[in-house]
Amino acid sequence: MNLDAANKTIFSDFNIFEEDLIHVQKLGVHILEAIENIVNEFHEIVGKQTHIIQIAHLQNDQVKSQQVKMWERKHWSIFWEGSFANEYFNSRNGIGINLAAQNLPLSDYTYSASVYLDLFINYLDKKGVVNNNNWRSIRKLYNMDTNIIIAEYSSYTNQVVTQHMEALKTMSFPVSQIWDKILLLPIVGKIDHINFEDMLSNILNRIVICNAKVLIVDLLGIKDFTPQNAHILMKLFKAAALMDCQVISSGIMPDVAEVLANMEDINLDDLFSSTSMEAALAYSFKLIEKN
Fold first, then answer.
1. What average pLDDT does range 248-261 have in this prediction?
2. The domain boundary residue, chosen from 132, 162, 192
3. Considering only CA atoms, which of 114, 121, 116, 138 is closest in space to residue 41?
């Protein structure tokens, strides 16, 4: 595979090995013979969901609909052939940016991804070729596939929000469900104690409603981090832990790390952190699979 260093790291994050690629390639022989029917079935299912904005727009545009189907057949053919070159990763990154730029709900994408996975597995089950080993390989590569888009979507959204930070005196704390049992809380700007206290109950309620087992707190865009801010965050982390929800912090910058390291009353052993959104998502999927 022709991969640069960053894309090789993604394989490592998801514990993807050569045997996983071999498993998927062997299963891909069956998928590729039915790929056109699977894509058409996907659009029949999702087309009935009028809340899926991107698909709904295709219903009255047959030319664009056929173009989208052709692109999806191409993507899934590459996936099931195990052709994970740089072109593949660049394409998935582009989708994440495009979804965010159009302000399309991330939940629409994750729903669509889950429908495709169900269709693939159901087809392979009918063929009687799925076992525990190749199922794990499918999950690893499929989680990677979706993670690339989610991470790029989050990154682009953070960039847009950051560009408007000078005009913001306070901030909100939007909590999004990005996958089954996984929530994302991006924090951009300054943490306002009163505002955060108001949002804490909302965050905890979302954990209950979504039966979330993982809460990713993205700190990449946080500004002017202080010891007081650290105590606010630790309050959230402890509250989530009491509700059996693992908190993972991502995007910790040097200034934030320095503040945390100098605080003797905070136990860093209780803080699981990752350097990137990709690594946080990879670990989240591992936790969900264990549960």
1. 89
2. 162
3. 116
pLDDT average, residue stretch 259-265: 83
**In terms of residue numbers, what domain contains 83?**
5-162
Rg (CA), the chain: 20
Q: Say what percent of the chain tops pLDDT 70.
A: 87
Contacts 24+ apart (CB under 8 A), 127-136: 127/30, 129/26, 129/27, 129/30, 130/27, 133/23, 134/23, 134/24, 134/26, 134/27, 136/20
187 and 118 within one domain: no
Question: How many domains does the chain fold into?
Answer: 2
Cα angle for residues 15, 17, 23 (degrees, 5° grid): 115
| Residue 160 structure tokens | 């847009």
DSSP character for 192?
A: P
Q: What average pLDDT does range 96-111 have in this prediction? A: 86
Q: Identify whether the C-beta of residue 237 lies closer than 8 Å to the C-beta of residue 214.
A: no
Q: Are residues 91 and 188 in the same domain?
A: no
Quick one: which of 116, 117, 3, 99 has its CA closest to 53?
Answer: 99
Mean pLDDT of 101-130: 91
φ and ψ at residue 214, rounded to 5 degrees = -140, 135
Longest dimension (CA), the chain: 63
Residue 80 and residue 173 in one domain? no
The pLDDT tens digits for 122-180 are: 999 999 999 999 999 999 999 999 999 999 999 888 887 776 554 344 445 678 898 99
Distance CA 151, CA 108 (A): 15
User: Contact, 282 vs 147, CB < 8 A?
Assistant: yes
Question: Beta-carbon neighbour count of residue 270 at 10 Å?
Answer: 11
At which of 103, 136, 162 does a domain end? 162
- Give yes or no for a contact between 276 and 240, defined as CB atoms under 8 angstroms apart: no
Whether pTM > 0.85 for this model: the answer is no
